[in-house]
Amino acid sequence: MPELPEVEALAADLRGRLVGRRVRRLDTYAISALKTFDPPARAIDDGEVVGVERHGKWLDLAIAPPAAAGEPSPLHVCIHLARAGWLRWRDEAPKVRPRMGKGPLAAQLMLDDDAGIDLTEAGTKKGLAIHVVRDPHDVHDIATLGPDPLADAFTEEAFSAILAEAGRAQVKGVLRSQRRIAGIGNAYSDEILHVARMSPFAPASMGADDVHRLYVALRETLQAAVEARQGVPATSLKSEKRSDMRVHGRTGEACPVCGDVVRQVEYADSTFQYCATCQTGGRPLSDRVLSRLLR
């Protein structure tokens, strides 16, 4: 799943490509992709892209519709790529019009010069979401986002208050909770906790020294990832993300800090990676899948 650094890079790339250009139409090919009906998707036809922003893991394309659409201010096409979604820039129109519900193509944003964006989603579990709204906060999952962890207002004091409010909840889950902190997912929470040398199962309520260490790790890890993604084309962002990971997705490999093997904890629908030497005092964490195998 693309997280804050990748979505920030996508927003910057699309801002340079789209702002000032005119939209021909938005076509959807996966019935589940378009989540809204008012305003209709056709309201952005012939509209001008006036901005591209990021809200957590959401992309927000602001499009000023033509006067004939009757909308007094820009509409927003808000896109969440979910676990297996992605987008690809096209310089020309497809030679064959895609068929509804066939293949990974979920939607196409067509520009008036035949360039545009393909939104795709692999696999059978569909989570990619497109909302056409008058205000981004009309999307419930955007309206309920926590603070952006790279914003100036996200101070160490603000972070400490979030952790204190979470109490005994596991810190990895707190980092991943979009209602507490926007934009961090499974991968970067693994990386942040490894940099902080902290167990994913540690309680969120912690001492001031631990809060400071985790805050610094969070800000530095995300900022470094954002800087590393600047100027990287969308087609290369996934591979860039994987290549930069210290522990996430590296089960069985050597920890880059201490050389111990990177271990994995697997749940029904997700996994995470960590280094026992760096993060848990050498103690392997309980893995429910492994525990079942050992019975």
UniProtKB/TrEMBL annotation:
InterPro entries in UniProt: FPG_cat, FPG_N, H2TH_FPG, Ribosomal_uS13-like_H2TH, Znf_DNA_glyclase/AP_lyase
Domain FPG-type: 246-280
Name of protein: Fpg/Nei family DNA glycosylase
Catalytic activity: Hydrolysis of DNA containing ring-opened 7-methylguanine residues, releasing 2,6-diamino-4-hydroxy-5-(N-methyl)formamidopyrimidine
Ranges that cross the membrane: none
Entry keyword Metal-binding: yes
PANTHER family in alphabetical order: FORMAMIDOPYRIMIDINE-DNA GLYCOSYLASE (PTHR22993:SF9)
Pfam families linked to this entry: Fapy_DNA_glyco, H2TH
Residue intervals of the Formamidopyrimidine-DNA glycosylase catalytic domain: 2-102
